[in-house]
Design a protein that fits this description.
CATH superfamily of one domain: Vaccinia Virus protein VP39
Bound molecules: S-adenosylmethionine
Number of helices: 7
Distance between the termini: 32 Å
Strand content: 25-35%
Strand order of the largest sheet: 3-2-1-4-5-10-9
Helix content: 25-40%
Radius of gyration: 16 Å
CATH topology of one domain: Rossmann fold
Shape: globular
Structural class: alpha/beta
C-alpha cells in the first residue's frame, strides 16, 4: 500500500508546467517503427503525460493517450487527432484486443510490483494477438535507486516512495529478471539497458540514469 497521495503529485507536476525531459520522442518513434508498428492499427500511449510521443506519430495509425492526470491530458488533447482518456494503468477502460500497439514509456514503474503486474495483465488484455509493447522501466542499478535507498521509504524489494521537489512519487526499480518475470506472457525482443535523459529529479545525482528498454509481442 502506498502512502503517496496518488494522482495529486502528477497533477501538481503538470500544474507547474511539467518536467523538463529532453526531446526523446524521435528515439521513441524509432523504437515503435523498429518494432514494426507502422500503419498497423491503434496505438495506446500508457501514461502519456503531455503527449510528447503522440506528436511524432506519422504513419502509426490512430493514437489514444491514457493518463491519470487531468492536467496532463488537458495539454495532450490539444494535439489534433489524438484521443485522450483519463484512467489508471491497472484498470484500462478499453475492450480486449482494442490496440495493435502499446507504448509505456517512463510510466509503469511508478507503482508497486502488485500494480505493475496488474498493469502488465491489462496491457496483454487490450493488445490484439500479435500486438506489440514498447516499454521503458528504471533499472535497479540507477542513480535514483541509490538516492531512494538513502532518502526514500522502502515499500517492498525494489519499490520506494520518494519525495522530490515536494512531490511524493512511488518508483519500482527493475532487475532484468523482474522484467522477464512481469512480462513472461509476452515474447520479449531487444531487451537492453540504456541511459535516458535526466529530469530535474535525477539531474545532479551521481551515477547513471539507466532504464531497461524493450519491445515485446503478445503471442
Ligand atoms: C514520468 S511521466 C512520463 C510521461 C510520458 N510517458 C513521457 O514519456 O513523456 C509519467 C506519467 O504517468 C502518469 N501516471 C502515473 N501513474 C499512473 C497510473 N497509475 N495510471 C495512469 N497514469 C499514471 C503520470 O500522470 C505521468 O503523466
Amino acid at each position: 500500500m502506498t502512502a503517496c497521495p496518488f494522482g495529486e503529485a502528477w497533477d501538481e507536476v503538470f500544474a507547474r508546467g511539467g518536467f523538463d525531459l529532453a526531446a526523446e520522442s524521435p528515439r521513441v518513434s524509432g523504437l515503435l517503427r523498429g518494432a514494426g508498428l507502422s500503419g498497423r492499427g491503434a496505438l495506446l500511449d500508457l501514461g502519456c503525460g503531455l503527449g510528447r510521443h503522440l506528436r511524432e506519430r506519422e504513419g502509426l495509425g490512430p493514437v489514444v493517450g491514457l493518463d491519470s492526470s487531468s492536467r496532463a491530458l488537458a495539454r495532450a488533447k490539444q494535439m489534433p487527432g489524438v484521443s485522450c482518456v483519463r484512467g489508471l494503468m491497472t484498470a484500462l477502460p478499453f475492450a480486449a484486443g482494442a490496440f495493435s500497439a502499446v507504448l509505456a514509456w517512463r510510466s509503469i514503474y511508478l507503482q508497486s510490483m502488485t500494480d505493475i503486474r496488474r498493469t502488465a495483465g491489462e496491457i496483454r488484455r487490450v493488445l490484439a494477438p500479435g500486438g506489440r509493447l514498447v516499454c521503458s522501466v528504471r533499472t535497479r542499478d540507477n542513480a535514483l535507486a541509490r538516492h531512494a535507498e538513502k532518502t526514500g521509504r522502502r515499500l517492498e524489494e525494489g519499490t520506494w516512495e520518494l519525495v522530490a521537489h515536494g512531490f511524493c512519487v512511488t518508483y519500482h526499480f527493475f532487475t532484468r529478471q523482474e522484467v522477464l518475470s512481469v512480462f513472461k506472457d509476452f515474447d520479449i525482443h531487444q531487451l537492453s539497458g540504456m541511459e535516458l535523459a535526466h529530469t530535474a529529479i535525477t539531474r545532479g545525482l551521481p551515477g547513471e540514469n539507466r532504464f531497461w528498454v524493450f519491445s515485446a509481442q503478445k503471442p
